[in-house]
Write a structure and sequence with these properties.
With about 100 residues, the chain is largely without helices or strands. Helices cover about 10% and strands about 10% of the residues. A two-stranded antiparallel ribbon has the order 1-2. Pfam families: Fer4.
Length: about 100
């Protein structure tokens, strides 16, 4: 069974700020390529985690397997209480805890 949830970066929109790479506690991005976000471990992304997408100021991150109605905030922080054990601040979506 293949992985059905992972981030996809729209490099046309990405401003290479590195916030998503710093935010991800799951090792999905290649830190050596920072600040440019390069997904190297999509299998490590946690189903429902929106940590990198929520912090993305340009709205450049979407997710393969997304069917929850979540929309990139395009620079507007999502005000949710963090209840995720990994620290991704994804609110009620992350299933890693």
């Amino acid at each position: 069974m293949s992985k059905t949830w992972y981030p996809v970066v729209d490099y046309e929109r990405c401003v290479a700020c590195g916030a998503c790479v710093r935010k991800c506690p799951h090792g999905v991005y290649n830190k050596e390529k920072a600040p440019t976000p390069v997904v190297v471990n999509p299998q490590d992304c946690v189903q429902g985690c929106h940590g990198c997408g929520n912090i993305c100021q340009s709205g450049a991150i979407t997710y393969i397997g997304e069917n929850t109605g979540w929309v990139p905030p395009h620079g507007k922080p999502i005000e949710k209480a963090p209840d995720c054990g990994c620290g991704c601040d994804s609110g009620s979506g992350c299933s890693c805890s």
